[in-house]
Predict the structure.
Amino acid sequence: QLQLVESGGGLVQPGGSLRLSCAASGFTLDYYSIAWFRQAPGKEREGVSCISSSEGRTAYADSAKGRFTISRDNGKVYLQMNSLKPEDTAVYFCAAGMTRGLCLIRALAYTYWGQGTQVTVSS
């Protein structure tokens, strides 16, 4: 059973940056497509970004384009978030799945989910 753990969340001022990490204890994430989702209080879960298992294809939600960057390194996946806005405040989840090399920002494509890490953007 793949257990995902997110880290790197916290409180940051508007315009600041955070880097979220997604890791699986005892496993490498290299063979899985990984996506980041977020959920703000009272709102539906929203896809943020994904990276495919092969060729490293990436995709971003419109809200993340130009500000967020997803990447892989040493068996982990990262989400670099720059120019953060108050509306980015949410619990961020990473998810892993076998998507046949596709990069999909759809929750149903992913089997394994982490517990989430809180990101709060506030002055």
Notes: Residues 87 and 121 are 8 Å apart (CA to CA). The chain has a mean pLDDT of 95. The chain is about 0% helix and 45% strand. The longest strand covers residues 90-97.
